[in-house]
Write a structure and sequence with these properties.
This protein is of the alpha/beta class. Helices cover about 40% and strands about 15% of the residues. α10 crosses α13. The structure holds pyridoxal-5'-phosphate. The site of pyridoxal-5'-phosphate has 18 residues, from α8. It is an enzyme of class 4 (lyase).
Length: about 350
């Protein structure tokens, strides 16, 4: 506990960047930059919470092997915290996980254990932990309860504190994607608890189970997501649909177009799930403009673009994966030129 507390005291909060929009619009958009955590993504917060939860529950003790099922970013952050407190760490991932992420996990002393399909990671992680008397962190189940929704410097509390002296300190919307669903659940609960008028919008990529399940009110299965970090083939236990005010399905090409546009137009180099967030944000801005409303919107920069130099930032990779941002780039150009959303 002391080592994690000391690490957190040595660390600074992440920036809340203001994105400059035309003054005549009267709308402020903010980007909470989670890429600047030591392990490069918003999963740094989750990993810290999951280790603290495991320690206070007596599930992690000296020498406990810690195991996780992860598509990559969570395991990178967890490997960091495992090394910090001196316990062994094993990440169960599919063979397709990017080389960059595997190298990061190994650089923190973590071991990678591969399975063939995404559906196998949960069972294999539980089996491995059981076999060695270790602890399965299980991000998809515990993300929502390991984070203290009342505060304790969770992501919602810090966003509202950073907005306090802005001209629109209570945002109309906070826009996030869902992987575990932990971030949206924490923000939704905090907004209700503190009685803010802010509404929560969740953006979801093609194929994901979250959107159709939210829209129909019953659990519907989806498929594999092409946007790393968000969208799941099943509705994860940490996702709470009841506190989501609006969900928006985002075309994968739109996520890539908005990610690239953010870099070209505003100079922020982000990953694809940040593009998904912005595709939703720009539509909400257009709606506010059409309704003659002013106010603010907050979203997250979930991670940085460097991890995706050989994928989403690479035209050949995009073509191979049949991701075409062209038509969506035109939608964004029209939006920034006119304030209207044609997509
Ligand atoms: C995990 C993740 C998300 C979604 O956050 P959750 O709290 O798990 O829903 C978004 N973007 C990236 C890059 C992620 O790794």
């Amino acid at each position: 506990m002391r080592r994690i507390e000391a690490d957190s005291r040595r660390s600074a909060d992440t920036h809340l960047h203001a994105i400059p929009l035309p003054a005549a619009w009267g709308i402020d958009v903010y980007l909470k930059d989670e890429s600047t955590h030591r392990t490069g993504s918003l999963k740094h917060r989750l990993a810290r919470s999951l280790f603290l939860f495991g320690l206070v529950n007596g599930w992690i003790r000296e020498g406990t092997t810690v195991v996780e099922a992860s598509s990559g970013s969570t395991a990178v952050s967890e490997a960091y915290f495992a090394r910090l407190i001196g316990v062994p760490f094993v990440a169960v991932m599919t063979r397709g996980t990017s080389r960059e992420k595997i190298a990061l996990i190994e650089s923190y002393g973590g071991r990678c254990h591969f399975v063939d399909t995404a559906g196998e990671v949960y069972g294999e992680a539980a089996r491995l932990a059981e076999a060695c008397g270790g602890h399965y962190l299980d991000q998809f189940t515990y993300a929502e309860r390991a984070t203290d929704w009342r505060g304790n410097n969770n992501i919602a509390e810090t966003i509202f504190a950073q907005l306090e002296v802005e001209r629109h300190p209570v945002p109309r919307w906070i826009v996030v994607g869902a992987g575990t669903g932990g971030t949206s659940t924490t923000i939704g609960r905090y907004v209700r608890y503190r009685q803010f008028a802010t509404r929560l919008a969740v953006v979801d990529p093609e194929n994901s189970a979250f959107y159709p399940s939210w829209a129909s009110g019953q659990a519907v299965d989806g498929g594999a997501s092409r946007i790393e970090g968000i969208g799941r083939p099943r509705v994860e236990p940490s996702f709470n649909p009841a506190i989501v005010d609006r969900m928006m399905r985002v075309p994968d090409g739109g996520s890539v177009a908005a990610m690239r546009d953010l870099k070209a137009r505003f100079g922020f180099d982000a990953g694809p799930s940040t593009g998904t967030n912005l595709w939703g944000v720009w539509q909400l801005v257009a709606e506010m403009l059409a309704a003659g409303e002013s106010g603010s919107i907050v979203t997250l920069m979930c991670d940085g673009g460097a991890r995706y130099a050989n994928s989403y930032a690479d035209d050949a990779w995009l073509a191979e994966n049949r991701l075409d941002p062209t038509e969506h780039t035109a939608t964004l150009d029209e939006f920034f030129g006119t304030g209207r959303w044609a997509g």
